[in-house]
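Deliverable D4.2, example record:
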Amino acid sequence: MSNASPAPSHAYPRAVLFDLLTALLDSWTVWNRAAGSETAGRAWRAEYLRRTYGCGAYVSYEQLVREAAAHTGLPLSAPQALEAEWLTLPAWDGARELLQALRPHCQLAVVTNCSKTLGHQAAALLGIDWDVVVTSEEAGFYKPDPRPYRMALDQLGVAASDAAFVAGSGYDLFGTSQVGLRTFWHNRVGLTRPDGAPAPDSEAPTLEPALDWIRHFNTTA
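Output generated by the structure prediction step:
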């Protein structure tokens, strides 16, 4: 991780925090492949998300993935295949380019619902020298509990008002709103915003508009 602070830039936030497994990495494709089909993978992933976003205090990520697979009728070979293919998680188009464009201007962090081992492995796939990587295991709680976001902000030494968040799941909107993080939702697969979730500050099906939104962060408050 980097210890050097980027040069300050008036319009940019001091830090940008990212969801990892849906905002930057295309974990959907790997889940679907492990499940054997898109339909089975979507059902499995939806059940996993329900469990992680509903359990609060950390329970083994790998355990929740296995439980969600069993609940949706998948064999144990499905979560085993997911873990075996973990290091093949592809980045979404534009993810690396966005991070490289932000690197001179902002601190960069990950806040992800994952185990420490798998979260840091996945973060390394982006090829960025992250300032902070916070996993739910390290925070002791799953998002959208506010504690993982606050842990990242504390480690960065940045107030929520001086930071932005790029989400991949609508569930993040519950947590970022509690913490006071303005949020761009990279809604790549066209998910419906969860009932009761606040609207994001900006939403798009690609990462391309995120850079412009972040660049004008301090002029649109």
